[in-house]
Amino acid sequence: MPDPAYPVLVIGAGPAGLATAACLTRRGIDHRLLERGATLGHTWANLYDSLVLHTGRHMSTLPGRRYPRGTPLFPTREQFLQYLHDYAASFALRVETGLDVQELRRSRFGWAATLADGARIEGSSAVVCTGIVANPRVPTIDGRARYRGDVLHSVDYRRPDRFVGRRVLVVGVGNSGGEIGSELARAGALVTVLVRSGAHVVPREIAGIPIQYLSSGVRKFPRTVQEAVVRAVARLTERRRGPPVLPRPAHSPLDAIPVIGFHLVDAIRAGAVSVQQGEITSLTSDGAVFSDGSTRPFDAIILATGYAPALGMLGTLVERDARGFALRRDRVTSADQSGLYFVGHNYDATGGLANIRRDAPMVVDHIVECRAVAARLARNRARLASLPVVR
Questions:
Q1: pTM for the complete prediction?
Q2: 216 three-state secondary structure
Q3: pLDDT of 5 over the 90 cut
Q4: In the sheet where 150-153 sits, what is the strand order?
Q5: Rounded to a whole number, what is the distance in angstroms from the first to the last CA of the chain?
Q6: Is there a common fold for 8-135+307-386 and 144-200+248-303?
Q7: Is the CATH number 3.50.50.60 carried by domain 8-135+307-386?
Q8: Helix (H, G, I), strand (E, B) or coil at 214
Q9: C-alpha 190: how far from its chain's center?
Q10: For the residues of 154-185, what is the DSSP string, one character each?
Q11: Closest by alpha carbon to 8, among 126, 128, 115?
């Protein structure tokens, strides 16, 4: 049983970590909020400048605080980052920055975090709030060493200036790839997007209502009803915007987060972005060879190939599902280790922030319950120890 004399370790001070720390603060539970970066919200502070949330502000808040009056329906990266700073200030959260947790292991008190400099921090429980952006998926590509152009992951992209007039291949058409590709085209880059299997594209809003809000409501109905709604949205989109310009994948939009908004579709229709289907077979000194046998020159390649859960600190302590997330008994509790929790590790069409708002209080409820059990056990042990010894 975790020792409640030690603080709860909250690892990561992005939205998930701040929400968890705020919920712990409201319940009066001692904790330490550890952040690898130089500031809270390190990941958001370093994403591309033009990023705008595609989830509406009403479902993009953390527990206990709304956006200030006048915030647009879809906040910008800067507005969201300011919201995080205001959130931390409103709960007087103490973020310990520059503490990069390399290992998280069990200890006699519960858990111990080992930092990059070898220091150890003991805690009663641990809440992993590291999300996914800290662990970008970078595929191995044959011939990369001989390619003379720039290769970077989308996590390292900031703004289009350096790519103006250059031939750029964007690998992947998720939301990041779509937004980056269309921004580059608007800035004057010669953009090609590489689509492996296809992509579902849905409107960001319908009749002024964010698609996220509609998705959240529809998910309460049976799968057959959800599929009917998806087909209706697809028909409506085709009537208004014409047939799809991207191939559709085999899976349903319900089974993976679709591309939200038509920024990329519009750029393709306008001829500002070209589409290459398939995969990269290898790189040449000045371009790429694709699985259909064609070869095209590129000055830069941006890998919008997604992310994997940042769980390296746990090593083999936890089992993982097919997507790399730790197995959980419920949404937040480790299936393998007592006193270990996860916030910011549930992703679906309702939005990561909406899931954080749901999951952070759930974790704290679990911790409160475990501490209550530990306190009862301690009282029982003390009571037994006080009984006279019968000889």
A1: 0.91
A2: helix
A3: no
A4: 150-153, 300-303, 167-171, 190-195, 273-277
A5: 32
A6: yes
A7: yes
A8: helix
A9: 29
A10: GGG---SGGGTTSEEEEE--SHHHHHHHHHHH
A11: 126
Closest CA to 35 of 118, 112, 135, 116: 116
> Hey, what are 142's tokens?
């044959």
Residue type, 305: T
**Locate tokens 């004057």: which residue?**
188
Pseudo-torsion of CA 365, 369, 372, 373, nearest 10°?
Answer: -170
Token reading at 28:
């009066």
Residue with tokens 């936890």: 318
SS3 at position 366: helix
pLDDT tens by residue, 84-125: 999 999 999 999 999 999 999 999 999 999 999 999 999 999
Query: How far does Cα 38 stand from its chain's mean position?
Result: 19
Spell out the domain ranges in the chain: 8-135+307-386, 144-200+248-303
Contact 174, 249 (CB under 8 A): no
Amino acid at 236: L
Q: How far is CA 250 from CA 218, 221, 226, 259, 291, in A?
A: 21, 22, 17, 15, 19
Q: Starting at the edge strand that comes first in sequence, how are the strands of the sheet with 101-107 ordered?
A: 101-107, 110-115, 120-123
At the top level of CATH, which class does the domain 144-200+248-303 belong to?
alpha beta
pLDDT, position 269: 94
